[in-house]
Structure prediction request, 1611 residues.
Amino acid sequence: MEDIEHIEKKVKLMDASGRRLDGRKSDELRPIRVEAGVLRRADGSAYMEWGGNRVLAAVYGPREAHPRHLQDPARALVQCRYNMAPFSVSDRKRPGPDRRSVEISKVISEAFSSVVFAEQFPRTSVDIFIEVLQADAGTRCAGLSAASVALADAGVPMRDLVASCASGKIEGVVCVDLNKDEDNFGDADCPMAIVPRTGEIVLLQMDGHLTYDEFQKAMDLSIGAAHRIYELQRDALRRRYSVTLEDILKESPPLPPPPPSEEPLPPIPPEDDFGPEGI
Amino acid sequence: MEDIEHIEKKVKLMDASGRRLDGRKSDELRPIRVEAGVLRRADGSAYMEWGGNRVLAAVYGPREAHPRHLQDPARALVQCRYNMAPFSVSDRKRPGPDRRSVEISKVISEAFSSVVFAEQFPRTSVDIFIEVLQADAGTRCAGLSAASVALADAGVPMRDLVASCASGKIEGVVCVDLNKDEDNFGDADCPMAIVPRTGEIVLLQMDGHLTYDEFQKAMDLSIGAAHRIYELQRDALRRRYSVTLEDILKESPPLPPPPPSEEPLPPIPPEDDFGPEGI
Amino acid sequence: MEDIEHIEKKVKLMDASGRRLDGRKSDELRPIRVEAGVLRRADGSAYMEWGGNRVLAAVYGPREAHPRHLQDPARALVQCRYNMAPFSVSDRKRPGPDRRSVEISKVISEAFSSVVFAEQFPRTSVDIFIEVLQADAGTRCAGLSAASVALADAGVPMRDLVASCASGKIEGVVCVDLNKDEDNFGDADCPMAIVPRTGEIVLLQMDGHLTYDEFQKAMDLSIGAAHRIYELQRDALRRRYSVTLEDILKESPPLPPPPPSEEPLPPIPPEDDFGPEGI
Amino acid sequence: MSEEIVSELMRAHVYRLASTGQRVDGRALDEPRKVTIERSFVSTAEGSARVKLGNTDVLVGIKMSVGEPYPDTPNSGVLSTSVELIPMASPTFEAGPPRPDAIELARVVDRGIRESKMVNMDRLCITPKEKVWVMFIDIHVLDYDGNLFDACSYGGVAALASTKVPAKAMGVGEDFALPVEHWPVSVTSVKIKDIVLVDPSLDEQRMADARLTVTTDENGDIRAMQKGLSGSFTYEEIKRIIETAQRVGREIRPLLKP
Amino acid sequence: MSEEIVSELMRAHVYRLASTGQRVDGRALDEPRKVTIERSFVSTAEGSARVKLGNTDVLVGIKMSVGEPYPDTPNSGVLSTSVELIPMASPTFEAGPPRPDAIELARVVDRGIRESKMVNMDRLCITPKEKVWVMFIDIHVLDYDGNLFDACSYGGVAALASTKVPAKAMGVGEDFALPVEHWPVSVTSVKIKDIVLVDPSLDEQRMADARLTVTTDENGDIRAMQKGLSGSFTYEEIKRIIETAQRVGREIRPLLKP
Amino acid sequence: MSEEIVSELMRAHVYRLASTGQRVDGRALDEPRKVTIERSFVSTAEGSARVKLGNTDVLVGIKMSVGEPYPDTPNSGVLSTSVELIPMASPTFEAGPPRPDAIELARVVDRGIRESKMVNMDRLCITPKEKVWVMFIDIHVLDYDGNLFDACSYGGVAALASTKVPAKAMGVGEDFALPVEHWPVSVTSVKIKDIVLVDPSLDEQRMADARLTVTTDENGDIRAMQKGLSGSFTYEEIKRIIETAQRVGREIRPLLKP
Prediction:
């Protein structure tokens, strides 16, 4: 799906024992780290490292939608802008949206639209900004998962977080969470996103070649992975607020604003480069 | 006038007996076929084949003009957008308006402005869309003539139809209705459009080289041709509605909407590929 | 600062006696001619020749600012558009603003903002247009100085005129008013603009390499030069209106409109190609 | 495709019908509209097809030109797909650069064709690293009555299948038909509340909560998918939609072949 | 050129005068305003002309560069004409990309020059198929008092006629004057209700119903025409306008020559 | 940087404090905020730096590619600097092409680096007239709390200083660090009424009347200056601001070195 780069060569992506180039098994995720509340100006924010991906998500709103003629008298607009930094890929990307970014922004906006309690905030917009700082395949899943945390950090009332992970096929084997080489030289990529509490699928794209059986295997892997992502998202919010997601969600709508800082911030593990005020 | 293509070579455009490459005499039109009411969504539409030209015209309105600051409190705006499909010419045309299209859109808009009873519909716009699907010189005349039928099909009140045909000069001979080769290698092209009932000239452009006498000969040919186009336009409306143009015009303004389909549609001749619901 | 052209070669910019290529001493200005009231449609205008620069400035306003959402309920917007004609430089410049023009427009707008009595004209804009017709380094200073005269010619109430001149360094010597070669091959360029009556600095930019001492020398030269420009600006207004700037400024705000032409226009010197109605 | 509002009355009517397995135009829930295809409509194009899917009407033209390959695929032709949602086709379409709707549409159509490897792109290489055939699929939407994803995809596939590469005129060999190897068929379903139906008409599409486009090949394998709109699907719904896409795909595929 | 509204009073006044063959500025109906031309105004341009037509004031600069010919005219130079309606010239002009008015204006000026074969384009070929002279006509409108079609055209013709091709500096031979072979003159008339007058001032142009620009050459032959505005002309009116254009063209042509 | 309105109350508070030499965040008037720099943040870039200046947070990435030199500098590399004021960083930033604020910012950062001759551009020539290294400085503003001029400049300098040129991968020799020869430091002061303070926070910047950015090198010499905003400075104020810039520059310079 990451169509920024294609290099034509033959690469052996899996060894005899079914291990992938980076040593993972077919159902294994890359290392993931997520942190909530990393920016000052934004109403909510999150930073995520997922394999070689580094993404930042910020949320503003609900705020007055503008220009005015875009306002929906019945509900908030949920608008996402996915953007890649020029230096986030091997060949410099020209600043500004390309067709790929426009499409990804659209499907992510739609994925969140049914999860946010938009009816509570007519005429407003909830603006989600995803910046890919370093890309390594799977940026839309990472961006979406980070944005979900940023929405919660902003106190935007939601039915649940959204969790996202892709699966794909490499050398005939269905695997979860492809990295860049696997995406470039693999046979299929299938990003999806779910609402973990209900199992609803809010984002689904696919390209490549999957039999019906392979597709089901891929979905099963993605769904399992999304639940693991969900745990990491909840952990991040718990670290940030010392409350559980359940506490947050059960009180919503509306979600109360985070306690201003009466609770001491949790200690940051030493290998963690960024405190709650950094990304 | 069709400046899409120029190929530099010497072409013999007329034989000893004064016949043109395609066998026509100097005052002879290419084969023309026009059909009204070919699209569902548009308020009015027409399809025209004219030599190798294939053009489609659609009309929406009178409808609220937007953006609002463009509204004229005294009359309807008559706005035409002439557009060539990327595949309508030999070398693919990039999508979107080029300078030539902008100019043609402007002169066609102006040609219709004095014919439509615009004062009856303040603050509205009458939007005319012309799509050139296949181009063979004379697309603006074909588009304008088709748009005229589409306006009538939409029930837009008008003083008359507008009929259009170009003349030009090839190898020193003034001829009507140049085809692509004649336009590319000819000496002059002079598209015009008239209001047949009054003889008023509402569009006139020319480039090339004409003496004053030649110009008058060209005008005479174009005016004659436009009257023949006018007959074809009226026939198309008559086939569509089983009423004459006179019936339509004498009742306007405003033109009543076409009878919903109580009248059976006329049979389509077998060589005719498109029924009234196709183009 | 004039980054339109760079040609890499070694040029000797100053001779042994400290004379520059065009014979000037380090503190000498190029020949300057300025004329007020040279355009009909604009509310005020001025034409300036400054060395090889030819610039035209026009002012419209105070007039209703549009689009409306830009209106400032407390004061007039002072907006400048600096533009270079495509033929004003050796290599044709594509029409429309480039990044350099945008920056220059911004700093000139800001330079005038504190000088115009903007509070007297809420919701309006004072629009300043500077057209560079022929460029020879120093166009922003020439444009700004001409615009100042155009503002006075338009009767826009101001605290004072603004006068502008650059200094720079060539072959280690601080000089005033660099020409194109000096700018291209020199070591520094430092355009500035002042309010002569108060000495306030309203525009200051610099690039290159100046020690602190050299900078002060440059500033001293520029300030001296700006006062000479100021005299020329006042002369132009005096020739135009047969009144002194002091007369104009002491009566403002608001400046009365120029006497319609009861006063005979001053004779134009024979070497002067344009009368008060031309540029 | 930014849709007008549908009246509540219409919405209730469509949904009530659908609950009993019926549709306004008489179709069954899993029944697509009639597809008619006219090939070689445009003689200035190297290939073309006019597709009507019910009253949705699109015209697709293929232009071939000689250009450079992408550096990372030096032995392959280049494919470029554009959709113009011209204002002729609907009161909701506006002139101007393509909006997100049109971009998504073009990219989904492109993916179905590209990922199914319909055209053997390696056979469109003229000189490796230097010269390859560039294939432009230009989709002109003429009349909009819903489900552009499928109409545009059928048009693209049918037009490619009728395309002759003008090698002789370009001085690079003999003319040849595009080397078509697979036959992707796109089938789109939408969900209205809890009901799923295939090939939505305009009214149905306007009130849909979620959309899923599935492109399958002649083996029934999945080559591309795209979920759209703000609603969600259950896993079970997705499986049923894929099965429908496989079945409908088998019905429509013969129509796309020349 | 999107004009401000003219007061009804002004409109009535102009029309009443015109009915008796008079105009606000004292001219006869078929009399153009005074044309003054200053050449070589801009030393950074290869050719230039400042034209005043009454109070309408335009500056035209010619830049020459070396570029590639169009594939279909491998032995001919290239001509490109732009008009900038800069906001300095009128409160109704706005900054930004050219609008339809400016595009039409540039194209009509271009056609007059191109179709009259004023410049022998074949003599601007340096190496067939590879290198030719590209000629940019850039028109800067400084002060707008009506009838830009003619003012811009005169500026373009006069500037071209004063242009020296900088071949030496570009390393492609010796400098030479542009090979001018014909002398097109554009003459514009407008119709206000039933009255036709030539070279409209701004007020006249604002209230005009129809406009016709006729470009004739030194033989009185017609090289380009453009009708504009929403009104119409009768055939007889057009013939008279052409005759006026031929006569006025003869008067103005000498002014355009260097 | 088109700022929101600051309340009159806040304005009065900040000014009253400043009159007594104090600031809301406890700094002295001539004291910059804390600068922290993290290098090599982005592995896809050839060099990068994340700079925090107080709570202002910018990420700068350097990309190197091989391209053509400008005709007038055939032996020198090419430098291109862009700033994206992404809407993530502030409610006042909007998506879209760069506005005048962002353009000025990028050009001032660029001038500081270019005019100080920080990088020896002649050593970035590969083949004279044909191939040189092109250096893209892309500045991504993540969190905006005032004074972007200095934060972006520090990011650019620090990122360049950590950049390794990927010559091997491009097949043009061995990798090498960018040849850095000078160390420009940008220091910005603003004036609020009659008080001048260095490195304004967002609130201070919002109410500032005038701004002056001074870039000095390791010798304390001036390499670039830019005055901004609608207010003015006296000559004396400018001299004091330059002296502050020299002193603060000396303090910050070591932080920018790798």
Observations:
- Chains F and D do not touch (no CB pair under 8 Å).
- Chain F has a mean pLDDT of 95.
- DSSP finds five helices and twelve strands in chain F.
